[in-house]
Write a structure and sequence with these properties.
By secondary structure, this protein is α/β, with parallel strands linked by helices. Helices cover 39% and strands 14% of the residues. Helix 4 (136-150) packs across helix 5 and helix 7 runs antiparallel to helix 9.
């Protein structure tokens, strides 16, 4: 009997030792398995900053005012580094384009959670997009739902961020859920007050030097004057790339000429690169195509980002084109906006109350917001004005464009950003 007990005990020890050496699910996977709204997940290529990264699909309410109603799939990237580090939430405004670490994530040596915006890519109902549920409060609630699912597992500081429309989404989320994160860093995020915010025109009339602005105008007029020669080049390029312009390629040509000015300042091109108006048509076309890719008006591209255009025309605003200098070159003289991008059956009905509400929050209550802008970026024409009532810092990179990042600031200003983050988050940051 004693021998049987000894053998049984040894067998038990052997079994327990086998269990000890069985591969265990990483802690990040255990977290995902514990979250009820997670539908599925899989391991994806990992940024060296993280231990592991997952593509995660959640099921979230179409209407957060009816949480038990219809739900749709929403995608996110979840990257785990350490429970002792902060969590950076990238609140995307479009389709997620990368799972790599964000600039802020690297500065904070943090974990990262990137949340795709509703109704982009496959983060939408399978049948069709219910456009009435595409608004800033519903999208903010999506982000809140995902953040809330991870909040119990990461007790450190939480920071939200985003670039351009993602920067807007970061502001909007914080307006509705100010306590979800400790600090927000929106990059180059406009706050527009209409579907054709005319502050853009005022900005473009003053940005840069008078000589540069005149050179831009002469270049645009040269494109119009050389349309008969250059339009076949655009037609050839369209055929080569299988582009489709449902508005007609001639109209797409005209809009692309008008877009050139905005795109030039948005992306920070050099005035020295603008060809003279009397340059060879091939030289004009080459520069034009570099500054303003024609696919902005191409049907497949419009379809891909149509949710952006819908939001722009209904709530978050947009810009238009000042046609006055070009009236003699345009087939019609009516004002040009982006209404043509709306889904079939929808008309532009801009609700200004949403952005005015956000503006009041930014001005009166939006604490611990660090706004990043580029001085010559055309989108800075409608940059946030946080006022003086809140604990807020607005940093403008002197030579910055829409691609401005913290690393692009001159060292004294960059150090000021680091100091602000350290003070607000009560922790040192990486200044590499």
């Amino acid at each position: 009997m004693k021998r049987f007990v000894v053998i049984s005990f040894l067998a038990l020890l052997f079994y327990l030792s086998l269990l000890a050496f069985q591969p265990q699910s990483p802690i990040a996977e255990q977290i995902l398995k514990s979250i009820p709204i997670v539908d599925s997940f899989k391991v994806i290529d990992n940024d060296p900053l993280f231990q592991s990264t997952y593509e995660v699909w959640f099921r979230v309410p179409l209407d957060h005012n009816n949480p038990n109603g219809f739900k749709f799939p929403l995608r996110a990237y979840y990257s785990h580094r350490s429970f002792t580090r902060p969590m950076v939430v990238v609140i995307d405004g479009y389709t997620m384009y990368t799972s790599r670490s964000n600039e802020l994530t690297r500065i904070l040596e943090a974990n990262q959670l990137t949340i795709e915006h509703r109704f982009f890519s496959k983060s939408k109902p399978a049948d069709s997009i219910p456009w009435s549920y595409l608004n800033i409060s519903q999208a903010a609630a999506d982000a809140h739902t995902v953040i809330s699912a991870f909040k119990p597992h990461y007790q450190g500081k939480w920071v939200s961020t985003g670039i351009s429309k993602s920067g807007q989404a970061t502001i909007f989320h914080r307006r509705f859920y100010p306590n979800d994160v400790d600090v927000s860093v929106p990059y180059v995020a406009p706050l527009n007050f209409s579907s054709e915010d005319r502050r853009v025109y005022e900005f473009l009339s003053k940005v840069g030097s008078a000589e540069c602005r005149e050179k831009i105008r002469e270049f645009q007029i040269a494109l119009f004057k050389n349309k008969k020669t250059l339009l076949p080049k655009l037609e050839c390029l369209a055929k080569k790339n299988s582009w489709q312009f449902t508005m007609g390629i001639s109209r797409a040509y005209d809009l692309s000429v008008l877009e050139y000015e905005f795109a030039f300042w948005q992306w920070g091109y050099s005035c020295n690169d603008i060809p003279a108006g009397n340059s060879q048509p091939s030289v004009l076309f080459e520069h034009w195509s570099q500054v303003n890719p024609f696919i902005f008006f191409e049907e497949k591209e419009i379809e891909r980002i149509r949710p952006f255009f819908y939001q722009a025309m209904t709530q978050i605003g947009m810009y238009g084109y000042n046609i006055e200098p070009f009236r003699n070159h345009l087939p019609d003289k009516k004002n040009i906006t982006f209404e043509f991008t709306l889904p079939k059956g929808h008309t532009a009905n801009f609700d200004s109350t949403a952005m005015l509400d956000v503006y009041r929050w930014v001005r009166d209550s939006g604490n611990y917001m660090l706004y990043i802008y580029g001085k010559t970026d055309a989108w800075s024409s409608t940059a946030v004005d946080p006022g003086t009532k809140t604990k807020t810092v607005k940093m403008v990179c002197p030579a910055g464009s829409h691609s401005t990042r913290i690393k692009d600031f001159p060292k004294p200003l960059r150090d000021s950003i680091y100091i602000t983050l350290e003070r607000w988050l009560e922790m040192p940051v990486s200044r590499k």
